[in-house]
Amino acid sequence: MGIGAGGGVALEGVHASVAALDALDREDGLLAAGAGVGVGVGADVDVLQRRFELRLTRLEVVKRLEAQLAAVKARDVAEAVEIQHAMLAPDAPVHERTFAEISAVEEIAGVLTISSGAAGAFMEQSRRVCSLPPVLDALAAGALSWQHARIVADETEGLSPDGAAALVAHFFDPDAPNPARGAAPGELVPSRFRAKVRAWRERHYPETLEKRHAKGVADRRMEYTPDRDGMAWISLCLPGHTASAIWNRTTATARGLQGPDEPRTLSQLRPDIAASLLLGAGNTTEAGRVPTPRADVLVMVPVFSVLGQTDEPAVLDGLGPIPASMARKLVADGAESFYRVLVDPRDGAPLEIGRTRYRLPETIKQWIRMRDGKCTFPGCSNHTSDNETDHLTAWDHGGTTGAGNLGQLCPKHHRLKHARPWIPYGASQNGPPGWTSPSGRHYKPEYPNPEPTHWPQWLMSTSSLCVDARPEDLPPWEPDDDQLIDLNDLSPEDPVWADFFAKPFVLSV
After folding, report:
1. Burial class (CB in 10 A: 0-12, 13-18, 19+), 484
2. What phi and psi, each to the nearest 5 degrees, are found at residue 315?
3. How many of the other CB atoms lie within 10 Å of CB of 279?
4. Secondary structure letter of residue 143 according to DSSP
5. pLDDT band at 501 (very low <50, low <70, confident <90, very high)
6. Whole-angstrom distance between the N-terminal and C-terminal Cα of the chain?
7. Residue 226 belongs to what H/E stretch?
8. Side-chain half-sphere exposure of 196, counting CA atoms within 13 A
9. Is the pLDDT of residue 165 over 80?
10. Cα–chain-centroid distance for residue 223?
11. pLDDT for the residue 42
12. What does the DSSP assignment read for 198-209?
């Protein structure tokens, strides 16, 4: 990294943010003085709205200031340890360098009033962030939080320098090949940003995923943890597709139990149902008298991966990347919950299945669920199978039943959309909508960032194209047999679509 005066840019940002806060505070003080007690509601309604907006703006500035201070803090920690090493003679023995670093960490722990272990972890995180200049620059500019920066540091650990640089460039360099689209890293809640970064890493470096998954399966377990107030936790560590199926089935059963005579909430019903299924349906709840609904687990598997020609990871709805071996097993075993989604091998995007009537067929509901991955409302991570597919522009206002006018919403945000002017915009065939808040703030959509399918090397090398050709350079496919049809020539209403999705998927052997 090198010792220098690199904190100047971050400090300039700190000064600018403090000045902005001061200006906002002065404006708020003037509005408060002008809207004194006793003024009628009709006269000060605009003042109240402006003071509300000022608080939102102040929160934005404070968020930026916290990030800028985090950049100053991380650089100071990394450089403090580096300076300690620079104070030693070049030929100082290893044990002296070790004690110099330990001493610096203890000094940092004392100054920040944190434990030695926390200080050591913070030092390592600071070093990794400072070793990634685009990430540190974004932090110093207030464009993302320390939590976001730490996520990048965590997910680049174990990658080669070139691999880490490629990951950082994808999310932070708009001129990089196939850069991330939609919301910028700092515009995503940290959990969603981590999911996107991890998905990119697993797709581009799948060789480590298979090994880590095998170890995770070997380490599967069930844990019991006593809690206060006479409560306790039961935790299961299972393969992702099994855990997703359990969660979806429990949620669907809970939805079936809800009604005017059921006082329990969805959150209360889930553990009651799980306990009932484990201990016997008649012991704790009435769940046993409700027919168990089918709860689909959606898996998007690249065709070459399912045929064993590549090891490109599949995507499990609500979880993220899973090893190709797990996906192949789900298909080969004839899992009833496996749902196929047509994927364009040139760009990895699901293909449109259009409809012109209001009522949604199950195929397009599942397709929208796969496209969006979760509730599309800003910051929401709800990916339960009972999310609702909503017309973004109401049917009676001219909205159509097509992918560009559909989005997945959890029940809470579905109700909010109709109760307050939260307005979705910009949905497309392959991308979820963004949102405009009642205060006029725009929240960009969280795009899934599909990429071209990994093509087998033997296929590319035996084609008339060069080995380094890209899949998108392939000529348009045309059927060479009268018994074959081009799906692009089919009407969205053609009954062949229903026949296609009704057939079980069988691997040839």
Report:
1. exposed
2. -125, 120
3. 11
4. S
5. low
6. 55
7. strand 221-226
8. 30
9. yes
10. 27
11. 45
12. HHHHHHH-THHH
Q: What is the mean pLDDT of residues 404-433?
A: 86
Total residue length of the chain: 509
CB neighbours of 383 closer than 8 A, spacing ≥ 6? 317, 318, 373, 374, 375
Answer with the residue of higher pLDDT: 351 or 48: 48
Residue type, 242: T
Residue 196 in tokens: 């996107």
Give the list of residues 6+ apart from residue 406 with CB closer than 8 angstroms, or none: 360, 364, 368, 389, 390, 391, 392, 427
Structure tokens at 485: 């049809």
> Which two tokens mark 13?
């940002």
Strand, helix or coil at 218?
Answer: helix
Task: Measure the CA angle with vertex 395, ends 393 and 400; round to 5°.
Answer: 75
Model pTM score = 0.70
Residue 106 has pLDDT above 90, yes or no: yes
CA distance 120 to 286: 52
- Report the distance separating Cα 411 and Cα 393, nearest Å: 17
- Mean of the pLDDT values across residues 198-202? 88
Q: Is residue 29 scored above 80 in pLDDT?
A: yes
Residue with tokens 């005017």: 260
Contact 225, 258 (CB under 8 A): no
